[in-house]
């Protein structure tokens, strides 16, 4: 699977602004009971002469909206962006009306303006969140100027103007900050979720290809015997026919087609993706590197595979994670190289290292520290989603690898260093001998002098 195909997996981002009806209903019911409790406690226990009838009527509008939603929607349905934004806008206006009746910004519950704004920033699109944030700021500003006074028990008591201005500033700044902070955090979570889903899709497809290779090898093995019988009978019939027999031509054609089928089945049986057979699922690390390079050969770009160590090679599993991860990085290097891509590998008793470098322009400095994050494209303006390197990094890290990205020299190409602890990647690490100890420093020299 190529990087471009992987990028297309995540091209359709899931629609934002979806929230379950049950969730908004529950939040509104909590607000209704909280508002009602606060209103009754302040009126009965603190002896504040609040306008109970208008305030209760305002709370009743929220009750009516909830009952209307219950009658119209199934609670397991989803509100989409516009509907969810409309209900949250109603919550802001309802709270503003209630605060107008109960002291405006002098009421400490004015802080609750931050609740619908924060909720909108986590579930809605940025545009809807901004509109709701502006609505909240507008309502806060109006309440700072126009509201019914809070009926303090002591006549003539009034909060200083500087305090009222400070409350207004804190609410406005808090609304703006929380809105963008919550939206940014939620967006990062959405992006990571989408990228991980694309990774799982790529890995699943690679596993399907591996399973298909195993099925093809099994089919080739199972069909070999009956096909051999058919070939034997065809040759015997061909031998028994006279030179001018009418069926001789047909038998010769049948014999040729049998040989063709046997050739096809033999090629299927040699598929290295044949899964369960250790002879093809386990291989020398150098063979795996050479296979990753061979999959992306091009006539205009030379691929140089260099072994820094030859003794005591690690035996690795040809897993979909390794095949997909290395393949993406090699393909990426091929697309940027001017004339050559180098794959250098080596190992010792402690580590296994692979260096993939090209002679292209190198990584852009502004993305170098971000490589491996989702939606960071090494091809700006190409229309791709920037998931190829992220998927490679995620898959290779599953095998125990650590990846490092850097430019060798300005304008002389990019390099990716991949290192595995040998005891993790080597299937025969428990049986290793000390023969590789004579080469303890090979893996350290790969690309290190140019970093």
What does this structure look like?
- With 451 residues, this protein is α+β, with helices and mostly antiparallel strands.
- It has 13 helices and 9 strands.
- The chain is elongated and about 125 Å long.
- Strand 8 and strand 9 (414-421) form a beta hairpin.
- It has helices spanning 3-9, 21-45, 52-72, 81-101, 114-123, 126-145, 161-240, 248-269, 278-281, 285-294, 320-336, 388-398, 422-425, and strands at 19-20, 78-79, 282-284, 302-307, 315-317, 340-347, 351-358, 402-407, 414-421.
- The model is unreliable at 1-15, 271-277 and 431-451 (pLDDT under 50).
- It has 3 domains: 19-200, no CATH class; 213-269; 278-450, Heat Shock Protein 90, CATH 3.30.565.
Tell me the layout of helices and strands.
Elements: H1 3-9, E1 19-20, H2 21-45, H3 52-72, E2 78-79, H4 81-101, H5 114-123, H6 126-145, H7 161-240, H8 248-269, H9 278-281, E3 282-284, H10 285-294, E4 302-307, E5 315-317, H11 320-336, E6 340-347, E7 351-358, H12 388-398, E8 402-407, E9 414-421, H13 422-425
Parallel strand pairs: 4-6
Antiparallel strand pairs: 1-2, 3-5, 6-7, 7-9, 8-9
Helix pairs in contact: 2-3, 3-4, 4-5, 4-6, 5-6, 5-7, 6-7, 7-8, 7-11, 7-12, 10-11, 11-12
């Amino acid at each position: 699977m190529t990087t471009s195909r992987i990028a297309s997996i995540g091209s359709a981002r899931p629609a934002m602004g979806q929230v379950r009806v049950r969730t908004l209903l529950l939040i509104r019911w909590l607000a209704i009971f909280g508002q009602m409790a606060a209103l009754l406690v302040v009126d009965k226990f603190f002896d504040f002469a609040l306008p109970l009838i208008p305030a209760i009527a305002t709370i009743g509008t929220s009750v009516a909206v909830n009952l209307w939603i219950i009658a119209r929607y199934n609670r397991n349905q989803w509100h989409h962006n516009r509907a969810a934004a409309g209900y949250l806008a109603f919550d802001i206006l309802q709270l503003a009306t209630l605060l107008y009746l109960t002291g405006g910004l002098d009421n400490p519950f004015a802080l609750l303006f931050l609740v619908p704004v924060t909720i909108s920033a986590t579930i809605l699109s940025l545009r809807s969140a901004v509109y709701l944030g502006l609505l909240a700021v507008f309502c806060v500003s109006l309440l700072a100027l126009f509201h019914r006074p809070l009926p303090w028990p002591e006549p003539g008591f009034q909060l200083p103007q500087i305090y009222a201005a400070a409350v207004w500033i804190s609410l406005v700044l808090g609304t703006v900050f929380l809105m963008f902070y919550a939206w940014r955090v939620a967006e990062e979570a959405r992006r990571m979720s989408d990228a991980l889903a694309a990774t799982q899709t790529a890995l699943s497809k690679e596993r399907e290809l591996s399973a298909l290779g195993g099925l093809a090898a099994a089919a080739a093995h199972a069909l070999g015997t009956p096909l051999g019988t058919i070939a034997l009978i065809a040759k015997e019939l061909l031998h028994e026919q006279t030179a001018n027999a009418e069926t001789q031509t047909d038998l010769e054609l049948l014999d040729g087609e049998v040989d063709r089928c046997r050739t096809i089945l033999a090629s299927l049986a040699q598929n290295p993706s044949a899964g369960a057979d250790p002879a093809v699922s386990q291989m020398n690390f150098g063979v795996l590197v050479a296979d990753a390079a061979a999959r992306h050969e091009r006539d205009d770009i030379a691929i140089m595979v260099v072994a820094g160590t030859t003794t005591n090679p690690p035996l690795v599993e040809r897993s979909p994670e390794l095949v997909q991860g290395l393949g993406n990085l090699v393909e990426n290097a091929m697309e940027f190289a001017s004339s050559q891509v180098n794959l250098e590998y080596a190992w010792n008793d402690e580590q296994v290292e692979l260096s993939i470098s090209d002679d292209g322009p190198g990584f852009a400095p502004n993305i170098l520290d971000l490589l491996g994050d989702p939606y960071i494209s090494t091809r700006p303006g190409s229309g791709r989603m920037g998931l190829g390197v992220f998927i490679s990094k995620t898959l290779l890290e599953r095998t125990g690898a650590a990846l490092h990205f850097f430019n060798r020299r300005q304008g002389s190409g990019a390099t990716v260093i991949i290192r595995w602890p040998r005891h993790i990647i080597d299937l025969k690490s428990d049986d290793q001998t000390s023969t590789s100890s004579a080469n303890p420093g090979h893996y350290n020299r790969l690309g290190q002098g140019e970093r």
